[in-house]
Amino acid sequence: MKWAFWIAATFLFYTYIGYALWLKVRCQLRPMPVQRGRCEPRVSIVLVVRNEERVLARKVENLLTLDYPAERLEIVAVSDGSTDGTAAILREYASQTRVMVVLNQLTRGKASGLNNAMQLASGEVVVFTDARQQIEAGALRVLLENFADPRVGGVSGELMLGNPQFGEASEGLGLYWRIEKQIRQMEAASGSVVGATGAFYAIRRECWAAIPEETILDDVIIPMQVVRSGARVVFEPEARVWDSLQAGQEFSRKVRTLTGNYQLLRLAPWLLTRDNPIRFELVCHKLMRLAAPFALLTTFVTTMFLTSWVYRAALAVQLLFYGLSLLAAVGLKAGRVARLAEACCAFVMLNLAATIAFANFVTGRKVVWVR
Question: Is the pLDDT score of 328 beyond 90?
Answer without folding.
Answer: no
